[in-house]
Write a structure and sequence with these properties.
Blueprint (H helix, E strand, L loop, with lengths): L3 E4 L1 H9 L2 H10 L4 E5 L1 H14 L3 H15 L2 E4 L3 H18 L3 H16 L6 E5 L2 H9 L4 E3 L2
Helix pairs in contact: 1-2, 1-3, 1-4, 3-4, 5-6, 6-7
Length: 148
């Protein structure tokens, strides 16, 4: 098993909201020394929180506090020009075949950028709740888990 895990916002929303996938994700997160996500996940997680709260402002604040605690455990990777360039390549490669969405391409490209920065021989696994993103990760040679 790798020491590095890239996690997207779909998983972070589940962890923040403590749903069944979130419980599953927490068990997996504990197995890794380094947890990484994209700065994009902050915006996507906020969107998920607002959706889950359904107008309940007290619940929204509670979930936002939960999200802060979750994000404190993660290293945040920035979206660089190299990430955007690679995401564009991924869209060309997988949009038709996998119905890859642009934000999913940015997540995969971010993980690829982080992987290039690791020492030779180190690998980075992924964790997502998104089937399309998981298929792209697998097609790009990553190993990991797609939560049900």
């Amino acid at each position: 098993m790798s020491n590095f895990l890239y996690t997207d916002a779909s998983t972070l929303v589940s962890v923040t909201c403590a749903d069944s996938r979130g419980q599953q994700a927490l068990r997996l997160l504990k197995k890794y020394n380094y947890l990484i996500t994209s700065v994009l996940s902050e915006v996507e997680t906020q969107a998920g929180i607002v959706t889950q709260a359904k107008g309940d402002l007290q619940l929204q604040v509670t979930l936002e506090d939960n999200a802060k605690e979750v994000f404190e455990r993660f290293q945040i990777a920035h979206i660089t020009e190299a990430v955007i360039a690679q995401a564009t390549v991924l869209i060309r490669r997988y949009r038709a075949m996998l119905q890859l969405r642009p934000l999913d391409a940015i997540h995969v490209a971010t993980a690829q950028e982080v992987k290039m920065q690791l020492a030779k021989g180190q690998v980075i696994d992924y964790l997502t709740s998104d089937q399309r993103q998981s298929r792209c990760f697998l097609s790009e040679g990553f190993r990991g888990t797609c939560l049900d």
